[in-house]
TrEMBL record:
It comes from Aquimarina gracilis. This is Tetratricopeptide repeat protein. TPR repeats lie at residues 272-305. Gene3D superfamilies: Tetratricopeptide repeat domain. Keywords: Cytoplasm, Membrane, Repeat, Signal, TPR repeat, Transmembrane, Transmembrane helix.
Amino acid sequence: MKTFTYNVFMFFLLFCVNCIHCQAPKASKNQIKYIDSLSEIAKKDLIGNGDALKHIIKLSQKANYPKGEVRGLVNLGVYYTNNSMIDSANFVYDKSEKIIQHHPDLDFALSYIYNNKAVILTNQELHYQALKYYHKSHKINLKQGDKKMAMITKMNILNCHLALGEPDKVIAYSNELMKDSSVVKQDDLKYQIYSSLAMAHYDKKEYGKAINWWSANLENIKDSDRHGEISYLMTNIADAHRSMGNYNIALEKALNAKNIIENKPQFSAYAASNAIILGKIYNSLDNPKQAILHFENATIKNPDDPMDLAFSYKNLGAIYERIETWDLSSRYYEKYGSLVDSLYHTRNEDISKISEGKIQLLEEEYKNELLTKDNDILSYKNEKQKLYIISLLVGFFSLLFILLSFILYKKYNKSERQVELLKEKEKKILETHLQSREEEFLATMISVNERLEKLTYIKRNLSSAIKYNNRDEIIAAEKKLENFISSTSDLTILKDRIESQYPGITAQINTRFPELSSNDVRHCLLMKLNLSIKESAQLLSVSTHAVKMARKRLKKKMNIPEDMTLKDHLQNTMY
């Protein structure tokens, strides 16, 4: 009896939903044509057409045109990315994915969504995370037979491995691409592959092979007007010869590269790279005068590149120290130290902007709620057209509802205990999940601490090399430092972990105590995570005394009573 009643109820429920769905407004051909034309116009400017894209999304929702809505959301994500609104971009991409889950015929758009997400992560130097989305995009490209997009995605995968310092994978992917005849026919794509192969072999210290690939690219463009690229290739070849100990050949090629872009301000970035290589070569030739001249020239040619400046300042300090010009050596070491401190300060400012990004995300969610309400109003108007169907079914469903309520009431009394058991099980699952998140967070902290220990080790090696004027050790320490700087994105991950563990905690602290500095906020977060003074000191690379004094000043700034500890105050007031 119960089974029969349930089946009858589900049959009529599905019948009713189907009738109502049939009455839902469908996008007409004219509406689709109009929305698509607006999308084409807005797509031409994905930097300033944010309002137009939002209007297209709203029109698509009213017209029940999911393809237009997804297209608008993807373009809006690109608009947000172009305007550095990364959180908003990820929000609309996630919303697009949810729509596609209900409309499998639109899964072709997932390729663009995953690719755009990967680009955002690549720009944030989160290459491992980017690889996950690039591989998803590549799988969809192959499924749809989009060879061109598949090749582009594979090139992006290759570049991620290059940035991660994985030359063997770069070589493997490059060789795989080179087997495709369509790739070889595309000069630009072949040029990129050759460049990637050269950099991979250079990283593996296979300088002869690197020279061969750079020379192949040079041969292809030597008669073109791409003077900057020509000079850059010749400079790279010169650097490879320098690494092999062929200093005279390296000097000749570097000087030829310099002559190509001499007195051409538009190639200042290439000129700076060339000046750095010339400085290295003259330094290897034990010609400090010329080495100083070119390192100083590098700082003038490209003053906006902090990595070129840091490298030049450090080498100038070392050279002046070697020739015992102590005042200039000290000055350049101070510039180098100030620049490194500035880079860390800028990174900390970027971390603080995450809170602002979350506020923008909330604003976007509010605007989307308004769009949803508008859609609800439209649905309400459409409901009036369905009254004649509903009136025929009200009586029947009323009877079924009474019967079903009686059956469910009897069943509820029997299963009440089962519900309680399920709740207890869910609670245990949640506690286990929280514990795993905490363990994952602590693992991230350990990773950051290891990075700091590595930096201390490099500093100790560099100090020893400078003290004993060991040029080989200086070069080795320089390489380690460069590798370390290129891989330091863990503080951003640590910040994400803190926000994941305590959502909105940074915004809470800044709102309640606006007078706190960024360093004060950092100490609050570490105390909120129950880190001891010793653990905080290790994480921040400072003494335990410095942490104690910072917490004492923080307590005074927050006007906390003497009989209450700073930790208790944070635990009681921050959630």
